[in-house]
Amino acid sequence: MHVYKSTVxxxxxxxxxxxxxxxxxxxxxxxxxxxxxxxxxxxxxDLSIKNPKALNITKVTYQLxxxxxxxxAVLNNTTLGDKTLTAVVAYDDKxxxxxxxxxxxxxxxxxxxxxxxxxxxxxxxxxYTQGLEFYKGELYESTGQYKESKLRRVNFETGExxxxxxxxxxxxxxxxxxxxxxIYQLTWKARRGFVYDVNSFEKLSTFNYSKSKEGWxxxxxxxxxxxxxxxxxxxxxxxxxxxxxxxxxxxxxKGKIPSLNELEWIDGKIFANIYQRNGVVIIDPNxxxxxxxxxxxxxxxxxxxxxxxxxxxxxxxHPERGTIFVTGKNWDRLFEVKLKKQ
Length: 342
Fold this sequence. Notes:
By secondary structure, the chain is mainly beta. It has two domains: 16-104, Immunoglobulin-like (Sandwich); 111-341, 6 Propeller (Neuraminidase), CATH 2.120.10.30. 2% of the residues lie in helices and 51% in strands. It has one helix and 30 strands. Strands 1, 11, 24, 25, 26, 27, 28, 29 and 30 form a nine-stranded mixed β-sheet that branches. A five-stranded antiparallel β-sheet has the order 2-10-9-6-7, with no helix packed on it. Strands 12-13-14-15 form a four-stranded antiparallel β-sheet, with no helix packed on it. A hairpin with a 2-residue loop joins strand 24 and strand 25 (269-274). The chain is elongated, with a radius of gyration of 23 Å.
């Protein structure tokens, strides 16, 4: 058994950026005054209007990303990241619309988790793992690289491939998730995903991305699909029509976490691999706040070292065993681990 400690590696300065106002607002001198230089989830956002020319202001209404807020709103029920403040100011017989950009950060320091390896299994060293998920006790895997991408059902204990289909040479396979006997598989830059029957692997349909430019990782909570695109954003998709309903941005108390890759839904949280970091963050899907960090970097030293060996990617939760399975791109080992909060 092996136990490793992990560290938190992320830092951005807290800031508020004034985007400027309309030309007419520049003439009047009106501007939104937040009275703060930084804002955390749960803080009170005190708002007022700078009025250097002493105009006769009769009414002011505020919005945060299109939602009405009070001038002293407590930011509890909001997601994190880049937001737009809007103020509609009425004075005399005129109105001015003012805007200002802010960033909202998480209000907790992420917990650090250790892990214990409880089992090690063989894994296909030629598989450039992009997605990994258990469904009804069986392990499914999606792999990448042009001309090498595939979708598989695998015996996780022996590494035997039970079912396999290859993607067309022009597609670079990415993450997968399974919901209601349907496999949802992403591709990287083609802006296209595929839906298969989980039993036959018959392709049922395809879907195109909307605002998210690339496909990286995907998971589901039983109702909604969550899709990463290589940035700090996780997009929410309707599984019926695959439209993007919106997104959350993943932030700590210090800054955003970019390069989010493979995703897994575990006990109400999103676990996300961070590309090139060999680590995983635990995310509150309601806010985008990072609640925990796991450093799996030591695992890479426990697999066969070779020229094509790449980073950790692939995390799958086995609910019956209560354990997590992790591997990497072109790794010859699949690790079953248990987590423990430090």
